[in-house]
Amino acid sequence: MYRYSFVLVDTHGMHSDTQVGELPSLERAFQLAEVITQELSSDPDRRWAGWTLEVHDMQGQVLAVKPVPSAAA
């Protein structure tokens, strides 16, 4: 298992929330990031519009940046 942190970043580039999880692979971390951003996009008030979700390794390196879609697909 590998540890990854998932960091929500607002439209001003400020880190808002960080969650750490253990997953079996980087591919699974990317899949989880996709699910999270899709869930955030379903907010009817669009509070997450323009935000991104970053996937970091435990050294703090950014491995992926996923934008929150403007609307659920």
What does this protein look like?
The chain is globular. It has a four-stranded antiparallel sheet with strand order 2-1-3-4, covered by helices on one side. The chain is built from one helix and four strands, in the order E-E-H-E-E. It has one helix at residues 26-41, and strands spanning 2-9, 15-23, 52-57, 62-67. The mean pLDDT is 92. The chain has one domain. The chain has 73 residues and is α+β, with helices and mostly antiparallel strands.
Question: What is the compact description of this entry?
Answer:
This protein has one helix at residues 26-41, and strands spanning 2-9, 15-23, 52-57, 62-67. The chain is an alpha+beta fold and 73 residues long.
Question: What tags apply to this protein structure?
Answer:
globular; alpha+beta; 22% helix; 73 residues; four-stranded antiparallel sheet
Largest sheet: 4 strands, antiparallel
Number of beta-strand segments: 4
Task: Quote the distance from N terminus to C terminus.
Answer: 31 Å
Number of domains: 1
Trace the largest sheet across and list its strands.
Answer: 2-1-3-4
Low-pLDDT windows of residues: none
The average pLDDT value, as a whole number, equals: 92
Layout: helices, strands, pairs:
Layout: E1 2-9, E2 15-23, H1 26-41, E3 52-57, E4 62-67
Antiparallel strand pairs: 1-2, 1-3, 3-4
